[in-house]
Design a protein that fits this description.
18% strand; binds flavin-adenine dinucleotide
Length: 537
């Protein structure tokens, strides 16, 4: 195992240029250079990869084929198979999704006196939140402020972001770090007890808070423990994905139909307020990219919300993380955290030369890597023909001293070490990987949507990051807006009187499909990618 000899020959060039590169700063792209690079090489700009939606509130919106097929699909649920008079669970608040956003929402809704049901597809915490590595942003140092953080977020998103959502994000950020700490989250600290913060791509200040390179697992552990401390008030139903939202006769979202994944039985949950916190859609493998996402990231929340008339925002833009593993084969697509570049590792080509500033925003960094491999032919081919460039991790200990890599990146050391690559001494081969859904269901800063009774938080929402999210702003997003969703429903639920439950929106949907001349063969939500199931099941 480890690198074959021909790859080692390229590594020798990386080692030879390293002393010179340690003194070099590759220039950042100008705004014009960046735009030209994106338009030519970023996957979002490939025309054939998208088409216009033909039905629903976003009719006419450019959308990746993979997502468009699901948004225009037939319902998975046959309404005749469910008796809505037979309600299995009744609650104040239903939260769909047991990741970071859903858990934060549950905690705040309970604090406001609501009875909560959290229904989740797999186990509580089987989620992208659990997998996050690098950290969470918050402007809580003297040389920083929410206003500077605001400018970075807007700049990162190409000034397309919803300014009100960004304001909410950056204003709540310092509070959120304190809140997580108060719940027991163990962020990295200096010996004097102050929080350690480092740079991320596109950030003008060091404001990334981390827990080694398992920041998401630490945050998820903290939130899950807190949720599980209140079993009388928060009921967690695992292996029970929502397959359709319920409405009442007055047009309010009134809960959901769940499917028991073991028995395939349907469960009717009636709820005064429903929060979608189903996360992203990396497992749709847009444009055949590998992904960093967990298996449940199949865009279900978007599909269900779209069918009840919720508007989507920025769904034509996905985040391709610049540094997915390209070798060894067993881990292709898995994330190599941006923290590696934050600690000083440069990105270099087959000759050991830099070709991009290592901390450009992710969209530009990815586009530069694609250009280097596809146009300039300066990538390294793996034995199975995958292209990649080197991420020169041995620089880290030259800059910060022996032991840094093991201390700061223990998960990365294990991930590569298992296959014979020692990242302390050898660089990692990387290529962009599908990482994050920049857009989602349109929300307001209090997490309300266009549809009464429907609230959204986390990666399932769209608008806060515009066309490109900066590192560390998603763990922040899920915590800020998860809390806000919980607080908002806590203010609303007592005033809600639900009418008779109905699934009549599915009949309207079928009619809309027919009127548009569509006869889709796909049913959605898909719940899990095809390759996780045996054919025909
Ligand atoms: C490998 C990796 C590393 C990352 N690193 C960072 C980082 O360092 N910093 C950062 O800010 N961001 C990072 N991110 C992004 C960030 O982790 C996620 O965007 C964020 O955690 C999403 O949180 P969420 O609660 O919205 O969704 P998730 O945490 O994915 O939770 C969604 C939940 O909904 C469930 N679900 C889905 N469909 C249904 C359904 N139909 N019914 C019921 N439940 C359903 C899922 O099973 C899951 O439990 C990373 C992401 C990945 C994948």
């Amino acid at each position: 195992m480890g690198y074959p000899q021909y790859m080692r020959d390229s590594i020798a060039k990386v080692e030879a240029t390293r002393p010179r590169r340690l003194q070099e700063t590759f220039p950042m792209l100008t705004a014009q250079e960046k735009q030209a690079l994106l338009e030519k090489f970023h996957p979002d700009y490939i025309r054939e990869a998208m088409r216009e939606l033909r039905v629903g509130p976003n009719k006419g919106t450019r959308t990746p084929h993979e997502l468009a097929d699901l948004l225009e699909a037939r319902p998975l649920l046959d309404p005749a198979a469910v008796n809505l008079d037979n309600v299995d669970y009744e609650t104040d608040v239903l939260i769909i999704g047991g990741g970071g956003a859903g858990s934060a929402a549950a905690i705040k809704a309970r604090e406001a006196g609501a009875k909560v049901i959290m229904a989740t597809k797999l186990r509580h915490g089987d989620a992208n939140t659990m997998m996050a590595q690098g950290g969470i942003q918050a402007a809580d140092k003297e040389n920083d402020s929410p206003a500077i953080h605001y400018l970075d977020v807007m700049g990162g998103g190409g000034f397309t972001n919803d300014p009100d959502l960004v304001e909410a994000l950056v204003r709540d950020a310092p509070l959120v770090i304190q809140w997580l700490e108060s719940l027991g989250c163990m962020f990295d600290k200096h010996p004097d007890g102050t929080l350690i913060t480092i740079h991320g791509g596109g950030t003008s200040r060091k404001r990334m808070h981390s827990a080694r390179d398992y920041s998401g697992a630490e945050i998820m552990r903290t939130l899950r423990d807190e949720v599980r401390s209140w079993p009388e008030d928060i009921q967690v139903i695992e292996f029970a994905p929502a397959v359709e939202l319920l409405m009442d006769e007055n047009g309010r979202v009134a809960g959901a139909v769940l499917m028991n994944l073991e028995t395939n039985e349907y469960l009717v949950v009636k709820a005064k307020c429903t929060i979608i916190a189903t996360g992203g859609s990396g497992r749709l493998h847009y444009q055949n990219y590998p992904t960093t996402n967990h298996y449940g990231a199949t865009g279900d929340g978007l599909v269900m919300a779209y069918r009840v008339g919720a508007r989507l925002a920025f769904i034509d833009t996905m985040q391709y993380h610049p540094t997915g593993a390209a070798f060894p084969e067993q881990i292709v697509g898995l994330l190599v955290t941006e923290k590696v570049r934050g600690l000083g590792a440069q990105v270099v080509n087959i000759d050991g030369e830099q070709f991009v500033f290592p901390r450009e925003t992710r969209d530009a960094e990815s586009a530069a890597i694609i250009r280097e491999c596809v146009e300039r032919g300066k990538g390294v081919s793996t034995p199975s023909g995958i292209q990649g460039v080197w991420l020169d991790s041995p620089m880290i200990e030259i800059i910060h001293g022996p032991g840094t890599v093991q201390r700061e990146l223990p998960a990365m050391v294990r991930q590569f070490g298992r296959f014979g690559v020692d990242i302390v001494k050898e660089p990692m081969l990387v290529y962009p990987t599908l990482h994050y859904q920049n857009g989602g269901i349109a929300i307001k800063p209090d997490c309300t949507t266009d549809i009464p009774g429907l609230y959204v938080a986390g990666e399932a929402s769209g608008g806060v990051h515009g066309r490109n999210r900066l590192m560390g702003n998603s763990l922040l997003d899920v915590t800020v807006f998860g809390r806000r969703a919980g607080i908002t429903v806590g203010q609303h639920f007592r005033d809600v009187k639900l009418g008779k439950l109905t699934l009549s929106h599915l009949e309207r949907w079928e009619k809309e499909l027919k009127d548009a001349g569509l006869d889709p063969k796909v049913s959605a939500p898909i719940l899990l990618p095809d390759y996780t199931r045996k054919k025909g099941v």
